[in-house]
Each structure stands twice: as structure tokens, then as C-alpha cells.
Design brief:
By secondary structure, the protein is α/β, with parallel strands linked by helices. It has a single domain (5-272), classed as TIM Barrel (Alpha-Beta Barrel), CATH 3.20.20.140. 37% of the residues lie in helices and 15% in strands. The model has no long low-confidence stretch (mean pLDDT 95).
């Protein structure tokens, strides 16, 4: 299988540390043989809407065939959205990550009208952080599963990003030597995988195979990567369709051949890979 699509690329307009201009993205994807692709800059809350507006403007100025405009929304809480509306959080580009109620009601901070206004062609939804729950493995597993399920059933989300991704530095910053499921992915109950797969198929969602954040991540253990490929194989057996996302931020120097070989090893073929129609 040759990777020829990439739907998860961040431009320098994104709120995080992304640095690629859209001109660079177009050039680098061409050099790597990517035939269809899209940018998907971060939208955590509406604080980031000006970033999306800039990204849309730059996209239109450089539009070419088979180049599309998406966004990556984060799963956040209704509580933080309401707090932000009250004001005083203008610099909270990642939303409000502390102080909220544990197990707060989940949300994404964009409407159908805003998707139409910004010409957004597809929405990637990602679980990026715990929603105010205790830093304990079982709590994190339960919380991440409910976020993945929320995204898999949300009417505005098209693609569920990197299920079970966990920032490799985030956990060490909070609890020394703590890790949620890297040593053994089987600590996540199979019942959760069953429930997620059923929700994805029933709601006609796509599941992202993320290259930089998971398969090619230099800090993730090889055992975890092998188990994650088994997980992808399981999802395929349940009828799940996948998208490819490099999750590029600063560079586009990815080993697509290695990633392709890993994906093929999980039994996933080109017919299992989604592509946005032109």
C-alpha cells in the first residue's frame, strides 16, 4: 500500500507550535507523492476562530486541485465554553485545562453555521487531554473512552483523530514515571474497543491512523506500537474505515514507506482508506 493521502496537516496559523506555511505544505506533499491532502488547524474553543479565519484566507490564496480545508476540534467541556463566554480567558488558546468539574459534560466549540461560514470540508475530532479527572490510570481510561465515544457519535465530526493518543511528555510532567497504557495496551478493556467500533460504524465515522503522533512517534515503545497495530486490525474486522493523517507541525519529513509497511502489516489495504472526493 502506498500512502497518497494526508488529511491532518497543521499550518503556521494553528494555535500550537506549527510552523509550515501553506505554500510549503503544497510543495512538501508533492515531493512526498501525496496526491490528496488537507490542512486541519486546531480549534480548541472559539478563542481559536481567528486562527481558522487566517488559515482559510491563506488556503484560498493558494488553492490547487485535490487540496482541501478541514479543522481539528478538541473535545472540551461545556463548563469551559461557558466560562470563556463570560470573558477573561483571551489567552487560553488551549481552553481552560484546570479548575473544572470532574467528568464535566463534553462539547466541541463550533456550530454547523460556523462550519459553513469558514468553508470547512471535514471535521477531525480529537481527545487531547483529561477533562478534570484524577490522574489515575482507570480514571484516565474511562475519561478517554467517553471522549472517544462522544466524538464517534457527534453529528458534526467526520473523523475521530488518533484514538488513545496520549501526549508522551504530558504524563511525565504531572506524575513522575506514570504512564496510562504505554507498557501494555491491553489494560484498556476490550469492551471499550467493541463499543467504540460499533459507534463508529453505526454513525458512519472515519478513524484516523496517525503517523507522527502514534506510529512513527520516537518516544512511544515498540511494544505499544505493535499492540496499537493489532487494535487497528481489530477495528478493520469490525468494518471501520480509516483516514491517514501525518499530523505534521514543523516538518514534513516523514517515513511514509515505513508507515505504509506498518499499516499493511495490520492487514489494512487501500480499499480500507478514506479519501475526500474532489
Amino acid at each position: 500500500m502506498k500512502i497518497e493521502t494526508d488529511w491532518h496537516i497543521h499550518s503556521h496559523n494553528s494555535c500550537d507550535n506549527a510552523s509550515l506555511s501553506i505554500v510549503e505544505i503544497i510543495r512538501f506533499t508533492s515531493l512526498k507523492g501525496i496526491k490528496k491532502f488537507g490542512i486541519a488547524d486546531h480549534l480548541n474553543t472559539r478563542i481559536n476562530l481567528p486562527d481558522i479565519e487566517r488559515s482559510r484566507k491563506e488556503f484560498l490564496e493558494n488553492k490547487i486541485d485535490n487540496f482541501h480545508f478541514g479543522i481539528e476540534v478538541s473535545c472540551v467541556s461545556v463548563w469551559e465554553i461557558e466560562q470563556i463566554k463570560k470573558g477573561g480567558y483571551e489567552n487560553a488558546i488551549y481552553g481552560i485545562r484546570e479548575g473544572g468539574p470532574a467528568w464535566a459534560e463534553l462539547a466541541i466549540d463550533i456550530s454547523e453555521q460556523e462550519i459553513e461560514k469558514f468553508g470547512i470540508e471535514y471535521v477531525i475530532g480529537g481527545t487531547h487531554w483529561p477533562i478534570y479527572v484524577p490522574w489515575e490510570r482507570q480514571c484516565l481510561i474511562k475519561d478517554y473512552h467517553r471522549q472517544n465515544m462522544f466524538l464517534a457519535t457527534h453529528p458534526l465530526v467526520d473523523i475521530v483523530a488518533h484514538p488513545w493518543w496520549f501526549h508522551s511528555g504530558y504524563w511525565k510532567k504531572n506524575i513522575a514515571e506514570f504512564e496510562p497504557w504505554f507498557h501494555d495496551f491491553t489494560v484498556i478493556p476490550q469492551s471499550m474497543h467493541d463499543e467504540f467500533a460499533s459507534a463508529v460504524v453505526e454513525n458512519k465515522k472515519i478513524v484516523e491512523i496517525n503517523l507522527h503522533a502514534i506510529l512513527l512517534h520516537p518516544r512511544y515503545p515498540e511494544k505499544f506500537k505493535r499492540q496499537y497495530l493489532d487494535y487497528l486490525c481489530f477495528l478493520k474486522s469490525r468494518g471501520v474505515i480509516f483516514s491517514i493523517g501525518s499530523d505534521a507541525h514543523q516538518t514534513y519529513d516523514f517515513d511514509f514507506e515505513k508507515a505504509s509497511s506498518m499499516i499493511e502489516g495490520a492487514g489494512i489495504t487501500e480499499k480500507d482508506i478514506w479519501s475526500l472526493e474532489s
